[in-house]
Design goal:
21 helices; 655 residues; ten-stranded mixed β-sheet; globular; 20% strand; six-stranded mixed β-sheet
């Protein structure tokens, strides 16, 4: 039997590091403990000497060590409370919107969503000197600090970070580091994170992410041309762009971007089944394209003009011999080897080039990749300009330009959904749709923990409709009060909207109403709140009797006064590593008690939760569970005999 302790969840950053070390170097562990001497022996050739340790390369700033500690600390005294009725289609959706401080929310989600998020997109404060950032302080309880600081805004607080203030960059790095660090833990092994940023911190952010993800997991730094007219916020240069940093967890593979209209026009041929295809030169162009590079890919192909027969042997004296000759007349090479050519002769189309007075050969590339023949590695090595448009998706370029990724398009998209409201500098949904298209498939989860006005939610809903597959989102946005004197605030207040998070919900609702078919979207709402578990107050006195009384009180009354079953149930799910969209249903196997059975594709076992004051013997005897299933109830609800019986049949945990 185990007592549930929300202050010490199973998942911590330390545990993850130990698991990774144990998998990579099991010999460094003795009796389940890490032996540092053995680890040093294994890494002897890679360790630095004392002088090198003092002069290491990397980004250093005031508060970095504490930022690391903050990322590793478990959530303290907080939980997520469901808000039924505030979402849309709540019973049939896995989309989640959470209102609250994103650092605390990320910590609460880490146990259940570690290794489960396929894509993360964030648009954090850019540190222009006018941004507000979260001030993370854990030296005292959250409520105490918020009340004392006088900066309480809903469940969190924001502070200005002007350039005139000391440690300007350090403040921003201390704010962003723990959030990015936890975000890495949430990603799947082939997951990817996209971060929008501008010139103010792009250099620091890239160095920081190199440290967190590893420089080898840098995917790209895209330039986003989002304002061709240029902004007049600088004296000498009108800035037209921002950046998009992309990092993978370990083994991300891009799915490419949708083909443009111009690219689609290249698929102008149809086969006997009506499948569209384009033609592409069979001779290798660019890169290692000489005969000596791949000698076995230099061989003749023969063509009979009258019958349009293609073969690897000369069958008639009149057959035309075609060789892969380069433009300077030297020997080149084919893209395919002789065996692949033999298997796909019907896909080849010889053609005479009058200008050079020679014959070339094209091969088919189908628009529907399911109809296409398997391409070899040479396809991906070819010249990028030549490849453009000849596969169903295209490789992204290092810059994105066009009206669809512009700031103006972002504003129009927002107004199109909420015509009577405004929002400053919303991102374009098309930009985020590009990120999602190249990185996610059906069933994948997309997260944005700087949700702002909800652009990522709109992008996912629209992309699902366009592709007719379902991706799910988790959005997190702090309850940031909108200045009622601003134009945005005046319009929002007229509709009863006071905060950014309320505006986010309105946008999500409007998107769900607009894009009902063919996929019916929706979302659930949760809000960051205090834990249902009574917080343990540290005792520093020397009176053993008082300490004993405090401990007995904690055991006797483990929950706070006025706790709500729905919130406690959600808190238990996350503590047990079950996601927020887990299937919850009344268990009908017994009638003496009310039991909720919880299951998830994320977990092989189930959990059974009963919050009744007393567990009846009929329930203990009739409960049908597996050995790995978990039963959770109040400790006071069971007799010692009942605990013994249950603990022998499953994993018993008590509150």
């Amino acid at each position: 039997m185990e007592r549930i302790n929300p202050q010490a969840p199973d998942f911590t950053d330390r545990n993850l590091l130990l698991e990774q070390l144990r998998a990579a170097a099991p010999e460094a562990f003795a009796d389940g403990k890490l032996n540092l001497d053995l680890l040093q022996e294994l890494l002897a050739d890679d360790l630095t000497d004392d002088d090198a340790r003092r002069e290491t390369f990397g980004l250093q700033w005031t508060g970095k060590a504490n930022a690391r500690r903050i990322a590793m600390r478990p959530p303290k005294g907080s939980a997520l409370a469901p808000c039924p009725g505030e979402g849309i289609n709540e019973d049939n959706t896995e989309n989640i919107f959470i209102e609250g401080d994103n650092l605390e929310v990320l910590k609460l989600l880490r146990n259940a969503y570690a290794g489960r998020i396929k894509m993360i997109y964030i648009d954090p404060p850019y540190n222009t000197g006018k941004d507000f950032i979260y001030k993370d302080n854990f030296s005292e309880s959250k409520d105490e600090y918020l009340e004392k600081s006088g900066q309480k805004v809903g469940d969190t607080f924001l502070v200005a970070n002007p350039k005139s203030q000391g440690r300007f960059h350090s403040n921003w790095l201390n704010f962003i580091y723990p959030r990015i660090r936890i975000a890495k833990d949430l990603l799947t092994s082939d997951g990817v994170i996209f971060v929008s940023i501008d010139d103010n911190e792009v250099h620091n952010l890239k160095t920081l992410m190199n440290e967190i993800f590893g420089e080898e997991n840098f995917v790209g730094q895209l330039v986003i041309i989002n304002n061709l007219k240029g902004r007049n916020d600088k004296k000498n240069v009108a800035t037209c762009h921002e950046y998009l940093l992309i990092y993978q967890k370990y083994d991300f593979v891009s799915l490419g971007l949708p083909l443009t209209e111009e690219q689609l026009k290249l698929y102008k041929f149809e086969d006997e089944n009506g499948e569209k295809y384009a033609l592409r030169d069979l001779r290798k162009r660019g890169g290692p394209d000489k005969r000596e590079d791949r000698p076995n890919m230099f061989f003749p192909i023969f063509y009979d003009q009258n019958s349009r027969r293609v073969s690897l042997e000369r069958l008639l004296e009149s057959d035309i011999e075609i060789l892969p000759k380069r433009s300077d007349g030297s020997d080149g090479r084919w893209r395919w080897g002789i065996d692949k050519v033999r298997e796909n002769l019907s896909y080849l189309h010889p053609r005479y080039v009058k200008k050079s007075d020679k014959w070339n050969i094209d091969h088919r590339v189908y628009l529907n990749i399911l109809e296409d023949i398997d391409e070899d590695d040479e396809f991906s090595e070819s010249d990028e300009n030549e490849d453009e448009g000849l596969i169903r998706t295209s490789k992204t370029k290092s810059f994105w330009i066009g009206g669809d990724v512009s700031t103006d398009f972002g504003k129009r998209s927002f107004k199109n959904i909420l015509p009577k409201l405004d929002f400053d500098f919303p991102k374009s949904p098309e930009l985020i749709k590009k990120c999602a298209f190249m990185s996610t498939k059906s069933g994948d989860i997309i997260m944005d923990f700087f949700a702002g006005s909800g652009t990522t939610g709109q992008a996912v809903i629209e992309l699902n409709k366009e592709t007719e597959i379902i991706r799910n989102f988790i959005l997190v946005q702090v309850r940031d009060i909108i200045d009622p004197k601003s134009d945005v605030g005046k319009k929002a207040n007229a509709f009863g909207i006071e905060s950014i998070s309320e505006l986010t919900q309105e946008r999500l609702k409007a998107c769900c109403e607009r894009y009902k078919s063919p996929i019916n979207p929706g979302f659930k709402v949760l809000k960051l709140t205090s834990s249902a578990f009574r917080p343990w107050r540290d005792y520093t006195g020397g009176n053993v009797a008082q300490l004993k009384l405090a401990f007995e009180e904690q055991v006797r009354n483990p929950l706070v006064e006025g706790w709500q079953p729905a919130q406690l149930l959600t808190e238990l799910l996350l503590l047990e590593g079950f996601p927020l969209h887990s299937q919850q249903e009344p268990y009908s196997g017994v009638s003496a008690n009310n039991i909720i059975r919880v299951s998830s594709d994320f977990r092989a076992h189930r959990i059974f939760i009963c919050l009744d004051e007393k567990i009846h013997n009929d329930t203990v005897d009739g409960l049908q569970t597996g050995k790995d299933d978990v039963f959770i109830c109040f400790d006071s609800a069971l007799s010692d005999l009942q605990k013994f019986k249950l603990d022998d049949r499953l994993k018993l945990k008590t509150i």
